[in-house]
Amino acid sequence: MNRFSIGTHAFILMVLAIGVIYSLPNLYPAKPAIQIAYTDSGKSADQSLLDQVSEILISKAITAESVGLKDNNIVAKFSSFDAQLAAKSALQRVLLDRAVVALNLEPSTPQWLRSIGGGPLKLGLDLSGGVHFLLEVDIESALDNRLDSLLNQYRKKFRDDRISVESSQKNDKELIFEFLSDEDYSKALKIFGDDNITSVGTALYDLQPSSIRNRVSLAYSQSAIKEIRDYAVGQNLMTLRNRVNELGVSEPIVQRQGSSRIVVELPGVQDTTAAKKIIGKTANLEFRLEAASTTSSLRKEEFDYQDERMGSAYLEKNVIVAGDRVTNASSGFDESGFAQVNISLDMQGGRAMQKATSGNIGRKLGVLFVEQKNKSILTLDENGQEVIEQTSYIEKSIISLATVQAVLGTSFRITGVGSPQEASELALLLRAGALAAPMKFVEERTVGPSLGKENIELGIRSIIIGLLSVIAFMLFYYRWFGLAANIALFANVVLITGFMSLLGATLTLPGIAGIVLTIGMAVDANVLIFSRIREELAEGKDPQTAIQEGFSRAFVTIFDANVTTLIASVVLYAIGTGPIKGFAITLSIGIITSMFTAIIGTRAIINLMYGNKNIQELRI
Amino acid sequence: MINLNIPFMSYRNIATMTSLALLALSILSLGFRGLNLGLDFSGGTLIEVTYSEAVDLGEIRDLMTNNGFDDFQVVNFGSDTDVLIKVADKDGSSQLGDTIFTFLQADDPSMELQRIEFVGPQVGSELRDQGGLGMLVALGMILLYVAFRFQYKFALGAVTALAHDVVIILGLFSLFAWDFDLTVLAALLAVIGYSLNDTIVVSDRIRENFRGERGFEPEEIINRSINQTLSRTLITSFTTLLVLLALYFFGGDMIRGFSEALIIGVLVGTYSSIYVVANMLLGLSITQDDLAIPEAEGVEFDEMP
């Protein structure tokens, strides 16, 4: 009685073995490393870059433990932090702007573990240090921009088709057109009707024609708005990925969250201000012609220069090309040694630029810098309390206004952009691709590297102290049975670590708290079983039957109790973000592994101790 | 083995009074003082820095005032070299933390940045809504599960016990003006899980005893069930408290609110699993018939004509 079959033992050992094997990578310390990638994000690191890196290291007599290709980067591992730093400055001096050289910590997981998918636990930002940003894409202003250019597009179309428009204007979220003759009105309706389809086949506009005064109002349909939003967020996501890439951070996260937000996580980044400067530049660009003195005031707008000393200038309302058409940009020097920015546009942008400049040589072309800013005012809420109301507004300023010297196409340059530094900063932003819609920071969390390290140390210390005190108590209170429970408890911690590493889950500080809590609660199952066995013994059952009954009768209770905790942690996972999700994950994994170790694991040990033996008295 | 027979149920009126008094106090405090919402929910900027030696908070306050800040808090965090500055959300600008860090560092270059947190007002209110909703969803799902596994009277008892625990913890956080942030919310949900664990163990025994033995008064059966599970309840609470105390004393300051909430939760949860559920069951006048194992309604097959 009370023996497990060989199959059951094999199963338990197999689960344990998996847990142990996949926990192993956590015992190998991370090695200082350097990660090298081409600045141009489209280019993957190749053999020639690898050779060059090796050469540079040899010429400086820096010994690397290994240099090799990994994903799109070159990774060099070093035995000391000094070597790592020396290598970084040596590489940077030679590779300059061509490649991004970033400090990094590489896991030193042995090959055989890596080949079966093993790797150490990922650390959350609160443990590794780094920055977490949540950015919100301003869809409203993307829509507003679209409407503006739509208005211009139709005005031009009607002009070309000789349709006379009595009035055309943008009113909040719709465009309103009025036509003089019925004939023009129906022609216009036909044009709108022909355009009224999105790429997925749904209606692009909500059209409301009214024959009184031959008036049509046009607004984007819900599906078109969704498409515009997806496009804007997708475009910004790509732009951010490129910008993050320029920072040279290992394992960054750039992800869409919800309908219009983007999460950016940069583990290990120490200079957060620099990171923020690059990522947070919510800049967009607009190329517009300077307004001629004869341009009607409805068609032009006045903008200030970014450099306050320069005053202001009038530009046409029509945007020739926006920043999302920019494919590349670099800084350089012109013939007379002043800084300049070379710009390349995509085909569509090039055509638009060509069209706009062909009849306008000698006029000036302005580059507008578009930034989102916040303003707050004090207002009274419904209870008469003073509250701060926040509005964000868009500031556009001229960064360059230069004479068009020739018909511009897909590539041209802007001169007179200030110092070489300013030129290269502008080029960097342009190169990383401008944003389809402005963004603003809605959340930011920066954790310094020392705090992250402290959090790990404190976390591990509390796990150990918690574990030891529970182990001591269980031994004292339940003796041999306590020993069995303790072995199961220890196995539980190993299993949690192993499965979290295997699943690629992220360990956070609340996650560590989750493990500690699991340790405290995991013994509950054993306590339930042992109390049950005591009761069965008190009722006069013989030891073997008592063990049997104790386990089976406690099972239902343990199951119900754990399922409900699991429900709570699933809800937590659904509502939580970052670290809290980490807590929910460890708690869920902990509940499942603890049921396995506490019920099956403990039973196996107890069976080995007492099974098939003739016991007269059971001390529990 | 100690065979306890404490007449828990004879004290149930006192327990009811105590619970009601605690609940009333909590609700009053929540109503009048509200919760001291942490950054996650209130929105704003927080910056934590470490100085090489103990620093005069007054000096930092002066620095802040001189730089044009008026609505802020400066406190020590954990030790007297660690300083935490909280600035109420003014213009939702994510630059605030950097600005403060820059002028603090200009004043004392040896100072080191620990963390900057900025939560926009909109995100804060969203997290508030999500958190509240999450609690309700969790309670609702648990109600369904317990009703499905046990019986609706147990489900009502269990959920009352959970609500009881949650309100009292919230009340204490409000009364002592402790920071209520996301980690505390996580702790609250863990308390729900824990307290339920306890409640189910007791309920399970009550159900078993109701089914097993006929001819006893419900009060007597409930009392016996509580006594039978008492040693388990106390031992589990004790081991959980052990690890929580380890976390409280050794886990660092960032996790202290979490451990606080859980420690209170374990204490209140232990009490509520003994009294609240039992009280509810008696209040709903549970009978043996409520728990009779339903007779399987045999599906009958008629021979096809």
Care to describe what's here?
The complex is a heterodimer of chains A (620) and B (305). By secondary structure, chain A is α+β, with helices and mostly antiparallel strands. Chain A folds into four domains: 6-25 and 453-610, Up-down Bundle (Multidrug efflux transporter AcrB transmembrane fold); 31-106, ACT domain (Alpha-Beta Plaits, 2-Layer Sandwich), CATH 3.30.70.260; 140-224, Alpha-Beta Complex (Hypothetical Protein Ta0175, Chain: A, domain 2), CATH 3.90.1070; 282-442, Gyrase A, domain 2 (2-Layer Sandwich). Helices cover 49% and strands 25% of the residues of chain A. In chain A, the strands form six sheets. In chain A, strands 15-14-20-19-13-16 form a six-stranded mixed beta sheet. In chain A, strands 2-3-1-4 form a four-stranded antiparallel beta sheet, with helices on both faces. Chain A has a four-stranded antiparallel beta sheet with strand order 11-12-6-22. In chain A, strand 9 and strand 10 (215-220) form a beta hairpin. The longest helix of chain A has 55 residues, at 449-503. Chain B is of the alpha+beta class and 305 residues long. Chain B has two domains: 12-37 and 123-290, Multidrug efflux transporter AcrB transmembrane fold (Up-down Bundle), CATH 1.20.1640.10; 44-119, Alpha-Beta Plaits. Helix content of chain B is 63%, strand content 11%. Chain B is built from nine helices and six strands; from the N terminus they run αβαβαββαβααβααα. Chain B has helices spanning 12-32, 39-42, 57-66, 96-107, 121-149, 152-175, 182-212, 218-250, 256-283, and strands spanning 36-37, 44-50, 72-77, 79-87, 112-119, 179-180. Chain B has a four-stranded antiparallel beta sheet. Chain B has a two-stranded parallel ribbon with strand order 1-6. The longest helix of chain B is centred in the C-terminal third of the chain and has 33 residues, at 218-250. The chains are: A alpha+beta (620), B alpha+beta (305). At the A-B interface, helix 9, strand 19, strand 22, helix 12 and helix 13 of A face strand 5, helix 5, helix 7, helix 8 and helix 9 of B. Strand 22 (439-447) of chain A pairs antiparallel with strand 5 (112-119) of chain B.
